[in-house]
């Protein structure tokens, strides 16, 4: 027994793309998949077994740069 996508002479990834396109086209207007929610990421620095403040990635990068700048000037 052979897989249909192999018998058709296409790759599995191509088979998945074709199947996904068929499903998307068959959905009624307005009944598409729900939009993805934005993920919220927090970064915490740990020292001596204690968790520091939870920061967003932008805040964490700014804090690391400030910390590195303070270390250079010392």
List keywords for this structure.
alpha+beta, 74 residues
Indicate the topology:
Blueprint: H1 4-7, H2 12-26, E1 43-47, E2 50-55, H3 57-73
Antiparallel strand pairs: 1-2
Give a quick precis of the structure:
Helix content is 49%, strand content 15%. It has three helices and two strands; from the N terminus they run H-H-E-E-H.
Q: Please summarize the sheet with the most strands.
A: 2 strands, antiparallel
Number of strands: 2
Strand content: 5-15%
Could you report the average pLDDT, rounded to the nearest whole number? 83
Order of helices and strands: HHEEH
* Helix/strand/pairing category: alpha+beta
The total number of structural domains is 2
Low-confidence spans: none
Counted by DSSP, the helix tally is: 3
Please report the distance between the alpha carbons of the first and last residues: 71 Å
Range of helix content: 40-55%
Within the largest sheet, what's the order of strands?
1-2
Shape verdict: elongated
Calculate Rg over CA atoms: 25 Å
């Amino acid at each position: 027994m052979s897989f249909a996508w192999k018998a058709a002479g296409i790759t599995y990834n191509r088979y998945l793309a074709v199947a996904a396109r068929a499903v998307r086209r068959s959905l009624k207007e307005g009944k598409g998949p729900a939009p993805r929610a934005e993920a919220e990421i927090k970064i915490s620095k740990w020292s001596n077994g204690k968790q520091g403040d939870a920061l967003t990635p932008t805040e964490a990068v700014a804090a690391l740069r400030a910390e590195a700048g303070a270390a250079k000037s010392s």
